[in-house]
Protein backbone atom coordinates (compact mmCIF):
# COMPACT_ATOMS: atom_id res chain seq x y z
CA UNK A 1 0.00 0.00 0.00
CA UNK A 2 2.81 2.41 0.85
CA UNK A 3 4.48 1.69 -2.52
CA UNK A 4 1.21 2.27 -4.37
CA UNK A 5 0.69 5.57 -2.57
CA UNK A 6 4.16 6.69 -3.60
CA UNK A 7 3.38 5.89 -7.24
CA UNK A 8 0.25 8.05 -7.18
CA UNK A 9 1.75 10.91 -5.17
CA UNK A 10 1.52 14.23 -7.05
CA UNK A 11 4.88 15.53 -8.29
CA UNK A 12 6.36 18.37 -6.30
CA UNK A 13 5.65 21.86 -7.62
CA UNK A 14 8.84 23.40 -9.07
CA UNK A 15 10.35 26.36 -7.24
CA UNK A 16 11.87 28.74 -9.82
CA UNK A 17 14.72 30.96 -8.76
CA UNK A 18 12.59 33.95 -9.73
CA UNK A 19 9.12 34.77 -11.00
CA UNK A 20 6.99 37.88 -10.75
CA UNK A 21 3.73 36.60 -12.21
CA UNK A 22 1.63 37.29 -9.10
CA UNK A 23 3.25 40.69 -8.59
CA UNK A 24 2.41 41.68 -12.15
CA UNK A 25 -1.18 40.53 -11.72
CA UNK A 26 -1.48 42.77 -8.66
CA UNK A 27 -0.16 45.91 -10.35
CA UNK A 28 -1.39 45.26 -13.89
CA UNK A 29 -4.40 47.63 -13.86
CA UNK A 30 -2.09 50.55 -13.03
CA UNK A 31 0.62 49.32 -15.38
CA UNK A 32 -1.93 48.96 -18.18
CA UNK A 33 -3.15 52.52 -17.65
CA UNK A 34 0.43 53.81 -17.75
CA UNK A 35 1.18 51.84 -20.91
CA UNK A 36 -1.98 53.15 -22.58
CA UNK A 37 -0.84 56.69 -21.80
CA UNK A 38 2.54 56.02 -23.39
CA UNK A 39 0.88 54.73 -26.55
CA UNK A 40 -1.53 57.67 -26.66
CA UNK A 41 1.31 60.19 -26.35
CA UNK A 42 3.28 58.42 -29.05
CA UNK A 43 6.76 58.84 -27.57
CA UNK A 44 8.20 55.55 -26.46
CA UNK A 45 11.73 56.42 -25.32
CA UNK A 46 13.06 59.21 -23.11
CA UNK A 47 9.58 60.65 -22.84
CA UNK A 48 6.96 61.80 -20.36
CA UNK A 49 6.68 58.48 -18.51
CA UNK A 50 10.43 58.36 -17.93
CA UNK A 51 10.37 61.91 -16.58
CA UNK A 52 7.51 60.97 -14.24
CA UNK A 53 9.32 57.87 -13.02
CA UNK A 54 12.52 59.84 -12.38
CA UNK A 55 10.58 62.40 -10.36
CA UNK A 56 8.57 59.90 -8.32
CA UNK A 57 11.56 57.66 -7.58
CA UNK A 58 13.70 60.66 -6.59
CA UNK A 59 11.06 61.67 -4.08
CA UNK A 60 10.76 58.10 -2.79
CA UNK A 61 14.48 57.66 -2.10
CA UNK A 62 15.21 61.29 -1.18
CA UNK A 63 17.57 61.99 -4.10
CA UNK A 64 18.03 65.34 -5.77
CA UNK A 65 18.35 63.60 -9.14
CA UNK A 66 17.41 60.30 -10.77
CA UNK A 67 18.63 59.89 -14.36
CA UNK A 68 16.94 56.98 -16.13
CA UNK A 69 19.12 54.95 -18.50
CA UNK A 70 19.07 51.69 -20.43
CA UNK A 71 20.62 49.41 -17.76
CA UNK A 72 22.46 49.32 -14.47
CA UNK A 73 25.69 48.65 -16.34
CA UNK A 74 25.26 51.76 -18.50
CA UNK A 75 24.48 53.69 -15.33
CA UNK A 76 27.87 52.71 -13.88
CA UNK A 77 29.72 53.68 -17.07
CA UNK A 78 27.96 57.02 -17.33
CA UNK A 79 28.42 57.79 -13.63
CA UNK A 80 32.16 57.20 -13.88
CA UNK A 81 32.37 59.39 -16.95
CA UNK A 82 30.22 62.04 -15.30
CA UNK A 83 32.67 62.38 -12.39
CA UNK A 84 35.42 63.05 -14.92
CA UNK A 85 37.26 59.71 -15.05
CA UNK A 86 40.13 59.97 -17.50
CA UNK A 87 42.12 57.33 -19.42
CA UNK A 88 44.49 55.51 -17.08
CA UNK A 89 42.70 56.55 -13.90
CA UNK A 90 42.38 53.70 -11.43
CA UNK A 91 39.15 52.83 -9.65
CA UNK A 92 39.36 50.51 -6.62
CA UNK A 93 36.67 47.82 -6.74
CA UNK A 94 36.08 44.59 -4.78
CA UNK A 95 37.34 41.30 -6.18
CA UNK A 96 33.95 39.74 -5.41
CA UNK A 97 31.12 41.20 -7.49
CA UNK A 98 29.29 40.95 -10.79
CA UNK A 99 31.51 41.50 -13.83
CA UNK A 100 29.89 44.87 -14.61
CA UNK A 101 31.47 46.40 -11.51
CA UNK A 102 34.91 46.15 -13.08
CA UNK A 103 34.06 46.16 -16.79
CA UNK A 104 32.26 49.50 -16.36
CA UNK A 105 35.57 51.02 -15.24
CA UNK A 106 37.23 49.80 -18.45
CA UNK A 107 34.33 51.00 -20.59
CA UNK A 108 34.60 54.43 -18.96
CA UNK A 109 38.28 54.57 -19.89
CA UNK A 110 39.76 53.68 -16.53
CA UNK A 111 41.58 50.75 -14.98
CA UNK A 112 40.10 48.55 -12.22
CA UNK A 113 42.27 47.95 -9.16
CA UNK A 114 41.00 45.06 -7.05
CA UNK A 115 40.86 44.69 -3.28
CA UNK A 116 39.67 41.90 -1.00
CA UNK A 117 36.31 41.87 0.73
CA UNK A 118 35.51 41.76 4.42
CA UNK A 119 34.67 38.44 6.07
CA UNK A 120 31.18 39.47 7.17
CA UNK A 121 29.46 41.66 4.56
CA UNK A 122 30.81 40.52 1.14
CA UNK A 123 31.77 44.16 0.53
CA UNK A 124 35.15 45.74 -0.08
CA UNK A 125 37.31 45.79 3.04
CA UNK A 126 38.22 49.40 3.98
CA UNK A 127 41.78 48.48 5.01
CA UNK A 128 42.32 46.54 1.78
CA UNK A 129 40.95 49.48 -0.19
CA UNK A 130 43.42 51.84 1.48
CA UNK A 131 46.28 49.47 0.68
CA UNK A 132 45.28 49.46 -3.00
CA UNK A 133 45.62 53.23 -3.45
CA UNK A 134 48.36 54.38 -5.82
CA UNK A 135 49.33 57.66 -7.43
CA UNK A 136 46.91 56.82 -10.26
CA UNK A 137 43.86 56.12 -8.10
CA UNK A 138 40.96 58.45 -8.85
CA UNK A 139 37.93 56.78 -7.27
CA UNK A 140 36.77 54.17 -4.78
CA UNK A 141 33.70 52.13 -5.75
CA UNK A 142 32.16 49.96 -3.02
CA UNK A 143 29.45 47.49 -4.02
CA UNK A 144 26.40 46.83 -1.86
CA UNK A 145 25.68 43.15 -2.34
CA UNK A 146 22.76 40.88 -1.51
CA UNK A 147 21.12 42.44 1.55
CA UNK A 148 23.25 45.16 3.18
CA UNK A 149 25.43 48.17 2.59
CA UNK A 150 29.19 48.21 2.57
CA UNK A 151 30.87 50.03 5.47
CA UNK A 152 30.26 53.49 4.07
CA UNK A 153 31.57 55.21 7.19
CA UNK A 154 35.02 53.63 6.95
CA UNK A 155 35.09 53.76 3.14
CA UNK A 156 34.16 57.44 3.10
CA UNK A 157 37.06 58.04 5.47
CA UNK A 158 39.42 56.23 3.07
CA UNK A 159 38.13 58.33 0.17
CA UNK A 160 38.61 61.54 2.15
CA UNK A 161 42.08 60.51 3.31
CA UNK A 162 43.33 60.03 -0.25
CA UNK A 163 41.15 62.71 -1.92
CA UNK A 164 39.25 60.11 -3.98
CA UNK A 165 35.79 60.29 -5.46
CA UNK A 166 33.40 57.86 -3.78
CA UNK A 167 30.98 56.28 -6.24
CA UNK A 168 28.62 53.49 -5.23
CA UNK A 169 27.72 50.41 -7.21
CA UNK A 170 24.34 50.37 -5.52
CA UNK A 171 22.67 48.44 -8.35
CA UNK A 172 21.11 45.95 -5.89
CA UNK A 173 20.47 48.41 -3.10
CA UNK A 174 17.10 50.05 -3.69
CA UNK A 175 15.58 50.67 -0.27
CA UNK A 176 18.87 50.34 1.64
CA UNK A 177 19.82 53.35 3.77
CA UNK A 178 22.81 54.53 5.79
CA UNK A 179 21.78 56.71 8.72
CA UNK A 180 18.65 57.69 6.81
CA UNK A 181 20.38 58.41 3.49
CA UNK A 182 19.59 56.15 0.58
CA UNK A 183 22.27 54.03 -1.04
CA UNK A 184 24.04 55.88 -3.85
CA UNK A 185 23.82 59.26 -2.16
CA UNK A 186 26.78 59.08 0.22
CA UNK A 187 29.40 60.23 -2.30
CA UNK A 188 29.42 61.61 -5.84
CA UNK A 189 26.59 59.30 -6.87
CA UNK A 190 25.41 55.76 -7.29
CA UNK A 191 23.33 53.58 -9.57
CA UNK A 192 20.24 51.41 -9.52
CA UNK A 193 19.49 48.41 -11.71
CA UNK A 194 15.93 47.54 -12.64
CA UNK A 195 16.77 44.17 -14.19
CA UNK A 196 13.66 41.97 -13.74
CA UNK A 197 15.03 40.02 -10.74
CA UNK A 198 15.91 43.16 -8.77
CA UNK A 199 13.87 44.32 -5.77
CA UNK A 200 12.32 46.92 -8.08
CA UNK A 201 12.40 45.15 -11.43
CA UNK A 202 11.18 46.03 -14.90
CA UNK A 203 10.17 43.61 -17.65
CA UNK A 204 13.50 44.10 -19.37
CA UNK A 205 16.68 46.10 -18.92
CA UNK A 206 16.61 49.51 -17.27
CA UNK A 207 18.70 51.45 -14.76
CA UNK A 208 19.39 54.85 -13.27
CA UNK A 209 22.10 57.14 -11.99
CA UNK A 210 21.20 58.62 -8.59
CA UNK A 211 22.98 61.62 -7.15
CA UNK A 212 22.66 64.80 -5.12
CA UNK A 213 25.34 66.48 -7.25
CA UNK A 214 23.80 68.79 -9.87
CA UNK A 215 26.81 68.70 -12.15
CA UNK A 216 27.07 64.90 -12.10
CA UNK A 217 23.36 64.64 -12.88
CA UNK A 218 23.62 67.08 -15.79
CA UNK A 219 26.62 65.26 -17.26
CA UNK A 220 24.97 61.82 -16.91
CA UNK A 221 21.77 63.14 -18.49
CA UNK A 222 23.72 64.41 -21.48
CA UNK A 223 25.90 61.32 -21.83
CA UNK A 224 22.88 59.00 -22.02
CA UNK A 225 21.61 60.96 -25.04
CA UNK A 226 24.66 60.99 -27.34
CA UNK A 227 26.20 63.82 -25.30
CA UNK A 228 23.40 66.21 -26.19
CA UNK A 229 22.36 68.55 -23.44
CA UNK A 230 19.24 69.64 -25.27
CA UNK A 231 18.81 72.67 -23.04
CA UNK A 232 20.93 75.25 -21.29
CA UNK A 233 22.14 73.83 -17.99
CA UNK A 234 23.27 75.91 -15.07
CA UNK A 235 26.49 73.96 -14.67
CA UNK A 236 27.35 74.09 -18.37
CA UNK A 237 26.53 77.73 -19.25
CA UNK A 238 25.95 78.74 -22.84
CA UNK A 239 25.29 75.21 -24.05
CA UNK A 240 21.95 74.41 -25.69
CA UNK A 241 21.23 71.69 -28.24
CA UNK A 242 24.93 71.06 -28.74
CA UNK A 243 26.97 67.87 -28.47
CA UNK A 244 30.01 68.64 -26.37
CA UNK A 245 30.62 65.20 -24.85
CA UNK A 246 30.92 61.91 -26.77
CA UNK A 247 27.92 60.15 -25.30
CA UNK A 248 26.01 56.96 -26.08
CA UNK A 249 22.41 55.97 -26.71
CA UNK A 250 21.27 54.82 -23.27
CA UNK A 251 17.84 56.34 -22.94
CA UNK A 252 15.26 54.59 -20.77
CA UNK A 253 12.30 52.98 -22.50
CA UNK A 254 8.94 54.58 -21.55
CA UNK A 255 7.29 51.16 -21.49
CA UNK A 256 9.73 50.04 -18.77
CA UNK A 257 9.12 53.30 -16.89
CA UNK A 258 5.38 52.57 -17.02
CA UNK A 259 5.91 49.15 -15.43
CA UNK A 260 8.34 50.52 -12.83
CA UNK A 261 5.95 53.28 -11.78
CA UNK A 262 3.26 50.69 -11.15
CA UNK A 263 5.58 48.39 -9.21
CA UNK A 264 6.97 51.28 -7.17
CA UNK A 265 3.57 51.54 -5.44
CA UNK A 266 4.21 48.20 -3.73
CA UNK A 267 7.97 48.45 -3.22
CA UNK A 268 7.77 48.83 0.56
CA UNK A 269 5.40 45.85 0.85
CA UNK A 270 7.70 43.77 -1.36
CA UNK A 271 10.69 44.65 0.80
CA UNK A 272 8.78 43.61 3.91
CA UNK A 273 7.81 40.29 2.28
CA UNK A 274 11.43 39.62 1.30
CA UNK A 275 12.48 40.20 4.93
CA UNK A 276 9.80 37.80 6.13
CA UNK A 277 10.97 35.08 3.77
CA UNK A 278 14.60 35.65 4.75
CA UNK A 279 13.71 35.17 8.42
CA UNK A 280 11.92 31.93 7.56
CA UNK A 281 14.96 30.63 5.68
CA UNK A 282 17.31 31.54 8.53
CA UNK A 283 15.12 29.82 11.11
CA UNK A 284 14.81 26.66 9.02
CA UNK A 285 18.51 26.49 8.12
CA UNK A 286 19.90 27.21 11.58
CA UNK A 287 22.42 24.56 12.67
CA UNK A 288 21.85 22.49 9.53
CA UNK A 289 24.81 20.21 8.72
CA UNK A 290 26.54 21.39 5.56
CA UNK A 291 25.27 24.98 5.86
CA UNK A 292 28.33 26.98 6.83
CA UNK A 293 26.69 30.38 7.04
CA UNK A 294 23.36 32.15 6.64
CA UNK A 295 23.05 35.92 6.07
CA UNK A 296 23.74 38.31 8.94
CA UNK A 297 23.34 42.06 9.13
CA UNK A 298 26.62 43.61 10.25
CA UNK A 299 26.21 46.17 13.03
CA UNK A 300 27.45 49.66 12.14
CA UNK A 301 27.97 52.82 14.15
CA UNK A 302 24.84 54.30 12.55
CA UNK A 303 21.40 52.87 11.75
CA UNK A 304 21.21 50.97 8.46
CA UNK A 305 18.28 49.51 6.57
CA UNK A 306 18.97 46.09 5.04
CA UNK A 307 16.91 44.86 2.08
CA UNK A 308 16.98 41.20 1.05
CA UNK A 309 17.50 41.30 -2.69
CA UNK A 310 19.24 37.90 -2.51
CA UNK A 311 19.26 35.24 0.18
CA UNK A 312 22.82 33.94 0.09
CA UNK A 313 24.16 30.95 2.01
CA UNK A 314 27.62 29.46 2.21
CA UNK A 315 27.56 25.69 1.97
CA UNK A 316 29.78 22.65 1.64
CA UNK A 317 29.84 20.95 -1.79
CA UNK A 318 28.10 23.96 -3.27
CA UNK A 319 27.92 22.76 -6.88
CA UNK A 320 26.65 19.33 -5.87
CA UNK A 321 23.93 20.90 -3.74
CA UNK A 322 22.89 23.18 -6.62
CA UNK A 323 22.63 20.14 -8.91
CA UNK A 324 20.58 18.28 -6.27
CA UNK A 325 18.15 21.18 -5.92
CA UNK A 326 17.87 21.54 -9.70
CA UNK A 327 17.07 17.84 -10.02
CA UNK A 328 14.14 18.45 -7.66
CA UNK A 329 12.89 21.51 -9.54
CA UNK A 330 14.45 24.22 -7.38
CA UNK A 331 16.32 27.03 -9.09
CA UNK A 332 19.44 28.60 -7.58
CA UNK A 333 22.15 31.03 -8.67
CA UNK A 334 25.89 30.94 -7.95
CA UNK A 335 27.30 34.31 -6.87
CA UNK A 336 30.07 34.40 -8.16
CA UNK A 337 31.95 31.32 -9.39
CA UNK A 338 35.08 33.23 -10.50
CA UNK A 339 36.42 36.30 -8.64
CA UNK A 340 36.90 39.41 -10.74
CA UNK A 341 40.68 39.50 -10.51
CA UNK A 342 40.87 36.02 -12.07
CA UNK A 343 38.47 36.69 -14.95
CA UNK A 344 40.23 36.17 -18.32
CA UNK A 345 39.29 39.67 -19.51
CA UNK A 346 41.45 41.16 -16.74
CA UNK A 347 44.44 38.82 -17.16
CA UNK A 348 46.63 41.65 -18.44
CA UNK A 349 46.34 43.36 -15.06
CA UNK A 350 48.59 40.66 -13.60
CA UNK A 351 46.58 39.46 -10.61
CA UNK A 352 47.06 35.87 -9.44
CA UNK A 353 45.22 33.24 -7.38
CA UNK A 354 45.59 33.63 -3.64
CA UNK A 355 45.86 37.43 -3.61
CA UNK A 356 42.35 37.95 -2.25
CA UNK A 357 41.59 34.90 -0.11
CA UNK A 358 38.30 36.07 1.38
CA UNK A 359 36.83 36.78 -2.04
CA UNK A 360 38.11 33.50 -3.43
CA UNK A 361 36.64 31.54 -0.53
CA UNK A 362 33.26 33.21 -1.05
CA UNK A 363 33.33 32.23 -4.73
CA UNK A 364 33.77 28.59 -3.72
CA UNK A 365 30.91 28.37 -1.22
CA UNK A 366 28.13 30.88 -1.93
CA UNK A 367 24.73 29.90 -3.31
CA UNK A 368 21.59 32.03 -3.67
CA UNK A 369 18.23 30.45 -2.87
CA UNK A 370 14.87 31.52 -4.33
CA UNK A 371 13.68 34.78 -2.75
CA UNK A 372 11.00 37.07 -4.21
CA UNK A 373 7.61 38.38 -3.05
CA UNK A 374 5.67 35.73 -5.02
CA UNK A 375 7.45 32.88 -3.20
CA UNK A 376 5.03 30.96 -0.93
CA UNK A 377 6.01 29.88 2.58
CA UNK A 378 5.61 26.26 1.54
CA UNK A 379 8.37 26.73 -1.04
CA UNK A 380 10.78 27.83 1.69
CA UNK A 381 9.91 24.68 3.61
CA UNK A 382 10.55 22.54 0.55
CA UNK A 383 13.90 24.15 -0.26
CA UNK A 384 15.11 23.74 3.32
CA UNK A 385 13.93 20.12 3.46
CA UNK A 386 15.82 19.39 0.25
CA UNK A 387 18.98 20.97 1.65
CA UNK A 388 18.64 18.93 4.83
CA UNK A 389 18.05 15.77 2.86
CA UNK A 390 21.09 16.36 0.66
CA UNK A 391 23.47 16.64 3.60
CA UNK A 392 21.80 13.68 5.31
CA UNK A 393 22.45 11.58 2.23
CA UNK A 394 18.80 11.14 1.28
CA UNK A 395 18.27 11.31 -2.47
CA UNK A 396 14.46 11.53 -2.04
CA UNK A 397 14.73 14.85 -0.18
TrEMBL record:
InterPro entries: DegT/StrS_aminotransferase, PyrdxlP-dep_Trfase, PyrdxlP-dep_Trfase_major, PyrdxlP-dep_Trfase_small. Transmembrane segments: none annotated. GO terms for molecular function: pyridoxal phosphate binding; transaminase activity. The keyword Magnesium does not apply. GO terms for biological process: polysaccharide biosynthetic process. The active site is at 198 (proton acceptor). Signal peptide: none annotated. Belongs to the DegT/DnrJ/EryC1 family. This is Pleiotropic regulatory protein. It comes from Actinokineospora fastidiosa. The lineage of its organism: Bacteria, Bacillati, Actinomycetota, Actinomycetes, Pseudonocardiales. The gene is degT.
Amino acid sequence: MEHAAALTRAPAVPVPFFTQAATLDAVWPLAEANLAEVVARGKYSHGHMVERFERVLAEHIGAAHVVGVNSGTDALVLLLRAIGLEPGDEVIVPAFSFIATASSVVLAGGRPAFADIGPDDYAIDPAAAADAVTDHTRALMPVHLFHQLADLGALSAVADRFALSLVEDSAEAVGMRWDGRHAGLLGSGGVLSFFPTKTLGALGDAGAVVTDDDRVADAAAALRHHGRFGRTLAHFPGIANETVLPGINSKMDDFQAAILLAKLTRLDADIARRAELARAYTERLADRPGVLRTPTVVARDVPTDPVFYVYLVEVERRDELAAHLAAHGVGTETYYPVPLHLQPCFAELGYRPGQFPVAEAACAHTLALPLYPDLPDTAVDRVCDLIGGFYAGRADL
